[in-house]
Amino acid sequence: MLVNLNEVLKKAQAEHYGVGLFNTVDSEMLQAAIEAAEELSSPIIIGTAEVLLPYGELKLIAPSIIAMAKQAKVPVVVHYDHGLTFQRCLEALHLGFSSIMYDASAKTYEQNVSETAELVRIAHGFGATVEGEIGHVGEAVNGDNATDKMYTTVEAAKDFAARTGVDALAVAIGTAHGVYKIKPKLNIQRLKEIRSAVNVPLVLHGGSGLSDDDFKNTIAAGIAKINVFTDLCLAGEKAMKEGIAAEENYLQIRNSKKDAIKEAIKVKMRLFDSQGKA
Ligand code: 13P
């Protein structure tokens, strides 16, 4: 069934488990995500991100994601991740996404507050939820150079949540998007302080390449949503290479890739402890 973030994250926050956001750019990734969630009876958040649109245009993939979400046996949030422009966020809402992230974290703090608040008003009119971000979650490829200065502060989290009315808040505590070159060091203490200062469910970006303990510790400290993409690409790439080496045909490779991505998603769902929570 198609639901919004409130319908999965409030329960996750109260019961101390995490719900994964798995971005998808094609039918293999979408099918893998739905099958994994149904097989483990787990809630799931499926989406795409503005930077991924060159690989799967919104109008092309939105109808299939939404149709699969509606007919799924488990709760599925269809989420537009890292929306960078109002135009694309509005397009996602009109296409039927039940949730959007507006990422103005690279803009000034006041711009981030006012633009996110405006999108919250609009999205709530659609019955959709909104995730915002403060602090800055960088790209691992740029050198894993997260510094304390980029981390979300407790004061900003309180102020941003109160002034925007966001339904979920992405925090920067030391993770980065992509493949880590050096092991990330997460600021769990800061996360705990933010958790006790705000009620809004907290989101961890850059969920690929983290250790089992990182997930255990961040979920115990208050993370309710974890975003994963790179690890799905790596699992799919490996399956395709093995399929080519084994001289599988196009259709066999397609399904091997789908199955490998499904397994990668199931590994994360078990780590996040969301299985059986649908
Ligand atoms: P990874 O690609 O590092 O898993 O990050 C995904 C993400 O945070 C999407 O918003």
Structural description of this entry:
- The chain has helices at residues 5-15, 27-40, 58-71, 86-95, 109-125, 154-164, 188-197, 212-220, 230-245, 250-272, and strands at 2-3, 19-23, 44-49, 76-83, 99-102, 129-134, 168-171, 202-204, 223-228.
- It has 278 residues and is α/β, with parallel strands linked by helices.
- The protein has a single domain (2-272), classed as Aldolase class I (TIM Barrel, Alpha-Beta Barrel), CATH 3.20.20.70.
- An eight-stranded parallel barrel has the order 2-3-4-5-6-7-8-9, surrounded by nine helices.
- Strand 5, helix 5 (109-125) and strand 6 form a beta-alpha-beta unit.
- Helix 2 runs parallel beside helix 3 (58-71), helix 2 (27-40) crosses helix 10 and helix 6 (154-164) runs parallel beside helix 7.
- The longest helix is centred in the last third of the chain and has 23 residues, at 250-272.
- 1,3-dihydroxyacetonephosphate (13P) is lined by residues 23, 49, 81-82, 177-178, 205-208, 227-231.
